[in-house]
Design a protein that fits this description.
The chain is of the alpha+beta class. Helices cover about 30% and strands about 25% of the residues.
Length: about 425
Amino acid sequence: MTTEVKVPTLGESITEATLGSWLKKPGDAVKADEAIASLETDKVAIDVPSPVAGVMGQQVVKEGDTVQVGALIATIEAGGAASAPAAAPAAAAQPVTAAPAASVAAPASDEDSADPLTLSPAVRRLVLEHGLDPSKIKGSGKDGRLTKEDVLAAVAAGTAVALAPAPVAAPASTPAPVAASAAPARAEERVKMTRLRQTVAKRLKEAQNTAAILTTFNDVDMTEVMAARAKYKDLFEKKHGVRLGFMGFFTKAVCMALRDIPAANASIEGDEIVYHNYADISVAVSAPNGLVVPVIRDAQDMSVAQIEKTIGNFGKRAKEGTLTLEDMKGGTFTISNGGVFGSLMSTPIINPPQSAVLGLHRIEDRPVVRDGQIVIRPMMYLALSYDHRMIDGREAVTFLVAVKNAIEDPTRLLIDL
């Protein structure tokens, strides 16, 4: 018996997606509701589950193809795990899109040899670039799937295992002399942009073309916030079940500043400015396919603990690929923390139709003057990019100073000052 697998409903107003990667190959045994493919929409990646248990049959579309909602993409054949080995030889060549991919699978001697075939194109490319054995890297994605962050973390920590060369394959390969001559690092690779990356590129360019973007800077002394975090982090985690970070403090400080400068929490619609009496804060979090921006709804009414829990949940779901379009709709102001990647300073681009975005950066000890004395303090640069069509320089500077004051004296967050 053959069961068809079709593109599920993707959300309001979304009619098509791109098939990002196949997670199962023909002949693989699949369970009911097990993910067999990953679809990329304009904002999120969505797993396509198998409607029944059986064996992966025909793959109707290829990775990178655009598919419509309701379109047939694969079939599931009746049967169990015993049927999988029979189809394995035919499937061996199916997912290999480039010659180096075969070398990724070479070191595995058991069922693990199938693991590299379920890597997303971006992860596969990263593994090949570093010459790593993917079976030796622990995956943190959904169902233990390997993500780009897992590979990069393993490289940074020095725990990644280099891929052992295949002694038989090198001399036996007919095109070996050609490969040797092509070895110099002038190779090129063309990779189709994901739907998410295309959408991000389009929206950022539209923002530059439409808004009059200007960036103002300030720096903030993190001494008091770091002291409070060090003093209460253990009690905080014990009571609330989440770590105390800096985003909770900054989100609260932003909400207070937005009340003082309502233009920073507004948007332009036609010839009107829409002011919001609520703060829906978009926060950039890292996902396997890039940064995504889920929204903390009504952040102005939340405690630091509630904000940290929400952000932690977003981060976990981003790695698992379970964020939904609803999670990323709306937003009246954005906070982007490039400091976690080591950024010293940047000029972030606003997220239309929002009018401003706050960029946070890395904390580093720098000499500063306090009471006539040069002292070393943990300092961070802040950057506020804003739409000059509705926010003037005075308002932008006032907003940034309000955030700075609240972070340097966290008591202000408690007494709403």
